[in-house]
Every structure is written in structure tokens, then in C-alpha cells.
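call fold(seq) -> C-alpha cells
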Amino acid sequence: MHTLNLTTSGTELGKASRALILLHGRGSSAGDILSLAGYLNLKATALLAPQAANHTWYPHSFMAPAKDNEPWLSSAITIVKQTVDTALKAGIPEKNIYFLGFSQGACLTLEYIARHAQHYGGAVAFTGGLIGDQLYTENYKGDFKQTPVFIGTSDPDFHVPVERVHETTRVLTQMNAAVTEKVYPNMGHTISEDEINLANRIVFDPSNG
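ret:
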């Protein structure tokens, strides 16, 4: 089971006005996802990156039956919640908490915010979708109150079918998120410069808040 193991960077949490929670992909690490921060417009922002046990948030594809990824998926959701609570206890309100994930971390990001929707600072999912062999809409609760969300993905992508990305956008939009989805033909399973630029403009630009 996962335990809260945070790697931090950026502005010291007690002095930051914003917090960004970064979730790494399968086989990766908190340190790897933190390296993206140098490309993002982040001022006075505390960076919080939890580490998955054995570098994997859950064992199977995000499209597998949800029960097959338990109890790891529930444990991963709890770790994200504990990371959010860490920021809250430091005095950073939800509206100044941001999320960013890649691949498995992007799926976990989207699943967490859909289960705990409220007015966040914003969220970025580089190639991901809501988790499960089907969408378990009974798990999704709350109102995003126009939280900006950017989802970028490749078509095709070996791990994330574009149809699931479209479904995810539809669900989050119905929950009152301001979703920007961009599909890149044959981009591959990676993060592009254009995605970084859009994330900065749509999500991390303070003037959007």
C-alpha cells in the first residue's frame, strides 16, 4: 500500500501563495515529474510530488475493471487527498491548489478531482482519462465552479484511447469545469512544447484566477 512520501520543491510551503501537486507516471518518480516545473509559470508556488510505492499508482491499465486495480487505486486516491490536506494545513486554500499529472499520474489527477470537485486553481492532464472499464459516475461529486482544466493527448496513444479522453472532457464539463482538450495527431506518449505552453496560458496564468 502507498504511504505519503512527498518530495518538495519551489517556494517553501509556509511562504507560498499557491501549491502544485504533481503526480508521476508508471515507472517514474516524484523527482522526474518535478523536473517539469522549470517549464511552468509558477511564482510563489510550493511544489508537492508524492511518490508511488514501487513507482506505480495501480497495477493494471486505467481501463481495466476498477476492482482489479484495488486496493492500490483507493490507496493512491488517499495519498492525493493527504497531499491536498498538507497544502490546506499550510494555509493555502483550494482555489490556489493546482494539479498536474502525466500518463498514469494524469489519470489519477483526473480521477481525484472528479471525486472531489470544487473550485481549484486548475488542473493539467498530459495524456490521461478517468479511470475504469467504464465511467463510474456515482463516484464523481461536486462543482468545479469553472476551474480551468487542460487535457492534452495523442491520437492514437497506445495507453489512452482518445475516446476516453473525450468522455472525460464531457464529464468534467458537466461538472462545471472549464475544460480545454487538445488532441495531437501521432504525437506519441510524451509531453509536447505546445502542451506546456497551453498549460501555462490556460491554467497557470494568475490573471485567469
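The chain has a mean pLDDT of 95.
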